[in-house]
Structures are given as C-alpha cells and as structure tokens.
Write a structure and sequence with these properties.
- The longest helix has 37 residues.
- The model has no long low-confidence stretch (mean pLDDT 85).
- 71% of the residues lie in helices and 0% in strands.
- The chain has 272 residues and is an all-alpha fold.
- The chain has one domain: Orthogonal Bundle (MetI-like fold), CATH 1.10.3720.
- The protein contains 11 helices and no strands.
Length: 272
Amino acid sequence: MNWGGIAGLTIVLLVMVVSLLAPWISPHDPQLQNLDRRLLPPAWAESGDSRYLLGTDGLGRDMLSRILHGGRISLGISLSAAALSGVVGVSLGLLAGYFGGALDGLLSRIADVQQAIPFLVLAIGVAAVSGPGLPNLVLVLAITTWVNYFRVVRAEVLAAREEQYVWAARAVGCSSARIIFRHILPNVAASIIVVATLLIANMMIFEASLSFLGLGVPPGIPTWGRLVSDGRAYVSSAWWISFFPGVAIFVTVMGINLVGDWLRESLDPRNT
C-alpha cells in the first residue's frame, strides 16, 4: 500500500472540501476591513485575539477567512488552466504523433521555441498583453504550459500508431478520427492523467508567482499567491500574513505531487 499516495489524496480532498465550504465555515467576511484590529498576531501569540485565529492583515481582515476563500480561487484557476492546457496539448499531440510529416515538424518547432523561453518571461509577456482578470490568467497559464501535454502525448502516439491493433483498425476501414479517439487515446490516457495531476501542482505555483508579481488576479480578490504578495511589506513585523498562505501552497502542492507519484506508479504497466 502506498501510504504517501494515500496521505497526498487525503490532503487534496481536505483542501478541496474546506475551500468549497469556505462561505459557510469562514469565521468572518474575507473582505471586511477593521483598521482598529489591523496586524493582530495569531490567537496563540501575545496580544492575539481568539476571534482571529491566524491574525489579521494590514487592513484588519481576517487571515483565516481570506486563506479559506483564496483556496477556492487558487484551486479553480489551477484546475481550469490544467484542463484547458490539456485540451490544447493533447489534441495537438495526437495530431502530430499520428499524422507525422510536415504537421509534426511544424508543431514540434513551435513547441521547441516556446520551451526555449523561460516560463515567467513568456507568462509575463502574455499577461501584459491580455491584461488582468481571472479568465485571462487561466488563458495565460494554458498558453504557456500546453507543451507539457504535447511532448508526452506525441511520443506515446508515435509508438502506438505502429502497434498491431492500429494496423488492424486500418485494415477494417476505420477512419483516422476513430483510430485516434477510440483506439490510441485510451491507451495513452494513463500518461495524460499523470501529467495533468502534476501540472495542477505547477499551476498553483505559477499562479502564485504571477500574483506575487502583480500580474495575476486583480487586486482585492484573495488567492494564496496574492496573500503572500500582500505580506511583503510586513515580513519583519507581521510574518503571519505571508507565512500561512505560503504553508497552504506548500501543503497542497506536496499533496498533489504525492498523488501524481502514486498514479505514475500505479498506471505504469512495468509495475504490474
């Protein structure tokens, strides 16, 4: 039994449930400001307030409530971006791997050029053009990460298209679309699932990085990356503003990675 995978799955499910229930379990309104209670330390610290378990930020907003609500946005962005990236990358990978030739060469060169550009540089450029906003942020993350799917799927399809079941499907007159989606895609699905799981964790880090630089979600919308960014000016005097959102990112990404490793081992035919 893979205890690491079980622990990772438990963490991920717990984070998802808590984030979904945030409107009902948050002790305060995450946007409610109270300057009389600004920069309160966590409840267990000296001069802490039991009503604010993780303290307050520079505007007196409850950190626990903002972290709970921020999880909804961060997880939503990560899942949406990974899904959109997967649709693009998997589709292009299937086409390039199956048909090969000029199409494969063109798509592979585009992927090479994109991979040659550091992620943050490319993401900052796209974000600067598209502007702020949740849909634009999802689009930025998808555009800059579709290559992860494309490379894996293309390599898998290049090998799968020479298998006997593909030749048999061609012999009985199956169309290319049917062969790709009914025969090849199910056989490469395991690799896609693993890539998607690991990419969701990367998306959370990417979103946090862009939000930290001020290129992510608009100001006022709490995400974990934005909360870490908000605490930069108070690191020496109010460490909890950046610390607890950072812990949330670390724990969630660790859980997703543990699940990804578990899936990779479970779906690898060499381990059966």
